[in-house]
Amino acid sequence: MAETAVEREGEERVERVRPDSLVTLHYRIATRDDVELISTFGGNPATLQLGSGELAPTLERWLVDLPVGEHHVFLLEAHQAFGAADPALVQRMALSDLPKNVPVEVHGMIEFATPDGAKFVGFVRELDDTSALIDFNHPLAGKAVRFEARVIGVL
Questions:
Q1: Torsion of CA 52, 57, 62, 67, to 10 degrees
Q2: Total domains, the chain
Q3: In this structure, what are the phi and psi dihedrals at residue 79, rounded to the nearest 5 degrees?
């Protein structure tokens, strides 16, 4: 198990999150204008292994060095959160090239598989009789977000 960062403040030990920590926390992701997208604050906390891809690496870096027990709010611009939207990741595809037996509808998600078995998701932006415009960017790419976290424990 990863070593936990600890510092002394008077007589008290304060555990802090490290880049490779197994951490239990409550977190919330919302839009800039505070429309909630995901939150664990109303239910069970999440336990995540940092560096494993369970949380976006750009969000993980905001957790590093946070002390156990404190609540932090980060207002992140797009480049600090999920990055800029890449126009090259928006592609028009023939309907015949889309996965079979999957409903295709505007604002729907379609899961694709690569030849090596990896899976990725595309968002249907437009649809006509012969093709669909698929966006493979992260849904929050190009958007500022509010990221909140309260670290419960570092294991």
A1: 0
A2: 2
A3: -70, -20
What burial class does residue 70 get, using C-beta atoms within 10 Å of its C-beta: 0-12 exposed, 13-18 middle, 19+ buried? exposed
Verify that 102 and 33 share a domain, yes or no.
no
Residue type at 50?
Answer: L
Give dist(CA 17, CA 6) in Å, integer.
9
Residue with tokens 């490779």: 20
35 and 104 both lie in a single domain: no
Report residue 12's pLDDT band, with 50, 70 and 90 as the boundaries.
low
Predicted TM-score (pTM) of the model is 0.75
* Helix, coil or strand: residue 56: coil
Domain span at 19: 5-83+141-154
Which pLDDT tens digit goes with each residue over 107-150?
Answer: 999 999 888 988 989 999 999 999 999 999 998 999 999 999 99
**CATH number where 60 lies:** 3.10.50.40
